[in-house]
């Protein structure tokens, strides 16, 4: 178990360029398995989850060449084999093997998927989409002699199920319409890759319409990580400093900016550079929802900001139970109460503490708490944080943080 020591209460100043998006990079790596050819991915982040995803596809025979942030995936000579549970159980994104393997090999054996276990994470919508496109499901065994286009009607919004449906539809015979699809910027990044690989995908208000095709290798640039950008932006107001991030207008952070500026925090944009500083003058209210709503993956990181100033409320509409991280934050003195649909975060004196990172975003919230607390804090289990934040310690040090 690795650990870091943070000496907090130092105002942080500076500019950060976020790495490539984890939640775009992971599905694109698996989508490349559905494609026969050589794909080039630019700005692939160097994080643990990405390394595991690359190991999983290389287990099927994909050849991988890494040259810094540019990675070449050659999936011309791949063959099906039962996925290695030791690898698939390490990341949630291994669920994209459902779409990739059914499209490429016509078979898949459901394997244990991993990821942050902040609550129950079902796969029923992924399997519904596979079944709609012609997959036979017998226990853990999935098979499809040829996927065929169909109407898929999701009754709630799922990033993962939308992406799996897109991967399968892109190689299926005929036309698929996906109703109730997720539209997160990372879903759009996957669409750009599949289009470049040969799929015809039309995005209209009510559905994603996909005309399947033979897919060949393609180039794609991974978008900057919106969650990393948001996490770093919080550091300005949180530490009494000012932090800027380089993030385009369509990054999907509008509702995040709105919540911060409604509370009195200053947010400015100059071209692609967004800066945040100043103190909130009232309670911060967060209510998460799929894009274009407030991203659930940024709610744990807002808790220390609420606690430091006038408190706030978090209503979680994507992962109802995503609050176990508050046990770790309570070590820093952050107090919270249960309310209908979420938690109230009370104004609290944040003090130095030792804790274990509970999961990726909860771990980031613990780091933010330690950066506010006066004195020496220790955070253990930092592997979980490195699953999703590339070069996080170096980036924090560049802003003036003291981290050992
Ligand atoms: N859901 C179902 N059935 C399914 C799939 C999802 O009921 O078959 C429900 C979930 O229980 C949840 C909601 O639908 O209530 C949304 O889940 P979604 O499928 O969108 O989540 P995901 O694809 O498993 C991705 C990200 C998560 C992020 C969510 C929501 C990846 C690898 N993970 O998960 O990221 O929270 O979308 O935006 O892309 C993180 O980065 O820390 C993280 C957890």
Give helix % range. 25-40%
Q: Trace the largest sheet across and list its strands.
A: 21-22-1-23
The general outline is: globular
Mean pLDDT: 96
Model description:
This protein has 404 residues and is of the alpha+beta class. The chain folds into two domains: 3-19 and 224-403, Alpha-beta prism (UDP-n-acetylglucosamine1-carboxyvinyl-transferase, Chain); 22-221, Alpha-beta prism (UDP-n-acetylglucosamine1-carboxyvinyl-transferase, Chain), CATH 3.65.10.10. It is 34% helix and 24% strand. It has 14 helices and 23 strands. The strands form six sheets. Strands 21-22-1-23 form a four-stranded mixed sheet. Helix 12 links the parallel strand 21 (354-356) and strand 22. It is globular, with a radius of gyration of 21 Å. The two termini are 15 Å apart. Uridine-diphosphate-2(N-acetylglucosaminyl) butyric acid (EPU) binds at residues 22-23, 26, 92-93, 116, 121-126, 156, 158-161, 296-297, 318-319, 360-361, 388.
Summarize the structure.
This protein has about 400 residues and is α+β, with helices and mostly antiparallel strands.
Give the SSE layout.
Blueprint (H helix, E strand, L loop, with lengths): L2 E5 L5 E4 L5 H13 L3 E5 L5 H12 L3 E5 L2 E5 L10 H4 L8 H9 L1 E3 L14 H9 L3 E3 L2 E3 L7 E3 L5 H13 L3 E5 L5 H13 L2 E4 L3 E5 L7 E3 L4 H14 L2 E5 L7 H9 L3 E5 L2 E5 L6 E4 L11 H10 L3 E4 L9 H6 L4 E5 L2 E5 L7 E3 L3 H13 L3 E5 L2 H4 L5 H7 L3 E2 L1
Helix pairs in contact: 1-2, 1-4, 1-7, 4-6, 5-6, 6-7, 8-10, 8-12, 10-12
Bound molecules: uridine-diphosphate-2(N-acetylglucosaminyl) butyric acid.
């Amino acid at each position: 178990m690795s650990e870091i020591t943070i000496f907090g209460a130092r105002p942080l100043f500076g500019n950060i360029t976020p790495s490539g998006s984890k939640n775009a990079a992971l599905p694109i790596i698996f989508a490349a398995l559905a494609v026969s050819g050589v794909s080039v991915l630019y700005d692939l982040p160097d994080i643990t989850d990405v390394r595991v995803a690359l190991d999983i596809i290389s287990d099927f025979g994909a050849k991988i060449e890494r040259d810094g942030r540019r990675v070449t995936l050659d999936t011309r000579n791949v063959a099906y084999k039962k996925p290695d549970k030791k690898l698939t159980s390490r990341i949630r994104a291994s669920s994209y093997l459902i779409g990739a393997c059914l499209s490429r090999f016509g078979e898949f054996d459901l394997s244990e998927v991993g990821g942050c276990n902040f609550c129950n994470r079902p796969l029923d919508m992924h399997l519904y989409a596979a079944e709609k496109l012609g997959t036979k499901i017998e226990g853990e065994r999935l098979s499809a002699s040829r996927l065929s286009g169909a109407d898929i009607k999701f009754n709630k919004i799922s990033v993962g199920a939308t992406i799996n449906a897109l991967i399968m539809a892109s190689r299926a015979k005929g036309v698929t319409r996906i109703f109730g699809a997720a539209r997160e910027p990372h879903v759009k990044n996957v669409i750009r890759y599949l289009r470049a690989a040969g799929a015809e995908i039309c995005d209209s208000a009510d559905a994603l319409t996909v005309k399947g095709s033979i897919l060949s290798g393609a180039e794609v640039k991974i978008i900057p990580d919106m969650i990393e950008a948001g996490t770093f932006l919080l550091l300005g107001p949180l530490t009494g400093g000012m932090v800027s991030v380089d993030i385009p207008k369509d990054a999907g952070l509008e509702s995040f900016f709105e919540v911060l500026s409604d509370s009195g925090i200053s947010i400015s944009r100059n071209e692609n550079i967004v800066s945040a500083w100043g103190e909130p003058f009232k309670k911060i209210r967060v209510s998460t929802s799929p894009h274009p709503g407030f991203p659930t993956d940024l709610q744990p990181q807002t808790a220390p900001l609420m606690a430091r100033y006038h408190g706030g409320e978090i209503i979680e509409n994507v992962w109802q139970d995503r609050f176990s991280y508050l046990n770790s934050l309570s070590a820093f003195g952050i107090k919270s109460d249960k309310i209908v649909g979420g938690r109230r975060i009370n104004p609290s004196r944040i003090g130095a503490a030792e804790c274990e990172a509970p999961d990726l975003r909860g771990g980031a919230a613990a780091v933010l708490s330690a950066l506010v607390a006066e004195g020496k804090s220790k955070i253990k289990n930092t592997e979980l944080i490195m699953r999703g934040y590339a070069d996080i310690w170096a980036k924090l040090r560049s802003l003036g943080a003291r981290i050992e």
